[in-house]
Amino acid sequence: MAYMKGQGATEYLVLLAVVLIIALVSIALLGFFPGMASDAKITQSNSYWRGEARPFAIIDHQINTSGAGTLILQNVEASGALTITAIVNSNTTGTSLSSTQVTFGSGETKNISISAAPTGTSGSVYDFGLVITYTSPNIAGLKQYGAKNIIGKYT
Questions:
Q1: Which of 15, 28, 40, 104 could form a disulfide with 108 if both were Cys (CB 3.0 to 4.6 A apart)?
Q2: What pTM was computed for the model?
Q3: Is the CB of residue 130 less than 8 Å from the CB of residue 57?
């Protein structure tokens, strides 16, 4: 009988050791892939700006290391023409990224050049908020605030 009690305790300790080793290996593997967290944020940001943002969706974006870049915007509203009057970086004190007025018909897509975006090194991640000021056929000075920042990697 004494051997049986010792065997149960030994099996318990062995199983506990196996579980702890698996946990340690899992934590170590997650630590070796720090880029995965930024890639997940980029995917979430792109998903929001392509599908949920209204009235302007950002189909794609690219920013170079000097802070100049391109936004591909689309008017996703069916209510008629909208005119973008300004695009501002909301993370800074309203740094204007573009003040070019561009009119979009319903469903129309256009490229907008931006400047004065945050700078960085090639391959590093940029992350900043956008406020798009626009005019509808009836109301001027409307603003679109993004619920998620624009996140991507510098080219």
A1: 104
A2: 0.73
A3: no
> Tens digits of per-residue pLDDT, 53-70?
999 999 999 999 998 999
Instruction: Report the candidate in 149, 126, 125 with the shortest Cα–Cα distance to residue 34.
Output: 125
pLDDT digits (tens, 9 = 90+) for 95-126: 788 888 999 999 999 999 988 778 888 989 99
The H or E element that residue 127 is part of is: strand 125-128
Domain ranges of the chain: 35-153
3-state secondary structure 60-105: EEEECCCCCEEEEEEECCCCCCEEEEEEEECCCCCEEEECCCEEEC
Which H/E stretch holds residue 57?
strand 56-63
The CATH number corresponding to 35-153 among 2.40.160, 3.30.1490, 2.60.40, 1.20.120 equals: 2.60.40
CA angle 49, 139, 99 (to 5 degrees): 55
